[in-house]
Amino acid sequence: MKNETELKELVKEKYSEIASQSKLQNASSCCGATSSCCGDEVYNIMADDYTKLEGYNPDADLGLGCGLPTAFAKIKEGDTVIDLGSGAGNDCFVARSAAGEKGKIIGIDFTEQMIERARANAEKLGYNNVEFRQGDIESMPITSSKADVVVSNCVLNLVPNKHKVFSEIFRVLKPRGHFSISDIVLEGELPEKWKQVAELYAGCVSGAIQKQVYLELIESAGFKNITLQKDKPIIIPDDILENYLNPEEIQAYKNGSTEITSITVYAEKPAKDERNCCEPGSGCC
After folding, report:
1. Cα–Cα distance list, 75 to 18, 70, 81, 248 (Å)
2. Beta-strand pair 259-268/147-153
3. Global confidence as pTM
4. Low-confidence residues of the chain, pLDDT below 70?
5. What percent of the chain has pLDDT above 70?
6. What CA–CA distance (Å, rounded) separates 70 from 196?
7. CB of 243 within 8 A of CB of 33?
8. Number of domains composing the chain
């Protein structure tokens, strides 16, 4: 697979394309990658239904997620909420409904086109307490101890250095703040050839890591009370598998022990960091 810089450019390129598409176009792909990733009959194999959540706005829903982290995030009125990989603003607008007019919602996205689309949606809705910032979530354009809550939906699997992201989440959260994140993880190994396919990386599959490793990264970043709020298996349809595996390989994959799972995980930043490592914000903890 490519190096970290090349992977980031791949994600930026793919999601710049997605930013100009409708939810219907994105739904024909796995996790919103381009249609070359999946067959025409595939839609929403990862995404959960946002339409019944307070604050939902269809213009902001590109069908790119793999869970409902904002619904699990325990957002209170007046909270400051940061959404990592905010896309067209879907989770930000749901978060605003919970945080109210006294709250502050900040969306961060790597892609300029997504930021433009999200800002246009916020302007149409007349929200003056929802802000979108372009930036890399491995080095967030946010001051330390800013947020009460961090949310993210199917984004960290796209980031090469997940340890650095969790360290950044720890930095920007206030003491006793918490996060709720939905993401794709693995149990078992993917077919080796999948790791070389750009569409499967951008499609949230080949960038996923082992579930246990994911949870250990959260713990090593200093978080406590780590809880799985949801654990949902992802079944990849045959018309996707046929793009990358021959019939014998498909059967071997189905008969194997590999599981692709969407998890929603919750964790809290303690009142005091007692790890005795390094200064907050330095990124080495």
Report:
1. 29, 8, 8, 48
2. unpaired
3. 0.85
4. 1-4, 6-16, 18-45, 195-206, 276-285
5. 76
6. 32
7. no
8. 1
